[in-house]
Specification:
This protein is α/β, with parallel strands linked by helices. It has 6 helices and 11 strands.
C-alpha cells in the first residue's frame, strides 16, 4: 500500500458522501486496516467515525496513531460478516478492494445482510472493487522485492488466474536484525482475491436488499463500465425504507 495516496482517496469518498448523503454525520468504516482513511476523514471535522477491522493488531496500531494526533475516532474489532454494533450509521465504507477478499457469492450476500443491520432508511454503503481489467493490467507489474524501513526483507510474486477469476499475491518474508544481516525468522503470506466484473457484481447485488445509486470509475465521477479497472459503488438498502 506504500504507493496509495490516502488523502486523495479520502477526499474522493468525502465527495461521494456530499453528493449522495450530504447531511452525513456518523460513519462506520469496515476493514479499515490501520485507519488512514478514517484519520483523513476525521481531519475534515464534520464526521463522527467508527473504524473497525477483523485484526486486533491493525486496530491497535490505528488507535495508537490516532491518540498521538488527538483524534476522536472510535475503534472496534469487528467481522464484517457479523457486525455486532448496535448503532446505525449514516454512511458505511469498505475500501481498498477489501470486498475482493470475499471469494464466494453467498459470503458477499452475508456481508451485505450484516451491513444492512447497521443502516437506517437514509444510509448509504460505499465500497470499491477491482475488476479483471485491473488484474490483467497489473499482473506482470506487481512483482517486487526489497527491504522495508523496519528491517523486513520481502519478495512479492503475483499472478492472475482468469479461468477462476482469482488474483494471488504471495509474499516471502525475512525478519532481519537491526544490522539487516541476520535472519531472525521467516514467514510466508498468500493473499487470494476474487476478481468481480461489473456485470457479476450487479447480479449479486440484485439478490440482496440493496439498490445501486451510483457506480464510479476509478477516482472520478465518471460512470463505471464493464471495462473499468476499479469501480466504486454507492448502495442504498431497500429493507430499511
Amino acid at each position: 500500500m506504500r504507493d496509495v495516496d490516502y488523502e486523495d482517496w479520502a477526499d474522493f469518498i468525502d465527495a461521494i458522501i456530499q453528493e449522495h448523503r450530504p447531511d452525513t454525520v456518523s460513519i462506520l468504516e469496515l476493514a479499515c486496516g490501520t485507519g488512514k482513511i478514517a484519520m483523513f476523514l476525521d481531519e475534515l471535522e464534520c464526521y463522527e467515525i467508527t473504524a473497525t477491522d477483523l485484526s486486533a493488531e491493525m486496530i491497535e496500531i490505528g488507535k495508537t496513531m490516532a491518540e498521538f494526533r488527538d483524534m476522536s475516532i472510535q475503534w472496534d474489532q469487528q467481522d464484517f460478516y457479523n457486525i455486532t454494533l448496535e448503532e446505525q450509521y449514516d454512511a458505511v465504507l469498505a475500501l481498498f478492494d477489501s470486498i475482493n477478499y470475499i471469494l464466494k457469492e453467498e459470503e458477499m450476500l452475508k456481508m451485505l445482510s450484516s451491513v444492512a443491520r447497521v443502516m437506517h432508511e437514509d444510509s448509504i454503503f460505499i465500497f470499491d472493487f477491482t475488476t479483471p481489467a485491473h488484474s490483467e493490467f497489473v499482473a506482470d507489474k506487481l512483482n517486487d522485492e526489497g527491504v522495508t524501513p523496519d528491517n523486513i526483507r520481502f519478495e512479492r510474486r503475483n499472478f492472475y488466474i482468469p479461468s477462476e477469476k482469482i488474483h494471488v499475491n504471495e509474499f516471502e518474508l525475512e525478519f532481519l536484525d537491526k544490522d539487516k544481516v541476520t535472519v531472525l525468522r521467516r514467514a510466508k503470506e498468500t493473499h487470494r482475491q476474487r476478481i468481480y466484473d461489473y456485470k457479476e457484481m450487479k447480479q449479486i447485488i440484485a439478490k440482496s436488499d440493496f439498490d445501486i445509486l451510483a457506480a464510479y470509475e476509478d477516482f472520478d465521477f465518471v460512470d463505471a463500465t464493464n471495462k473499468s479497472e476499479r469501480i466504486t459503488l454507492v448502495l442504498k438498502c431497500r429493507k430499511n425504507q
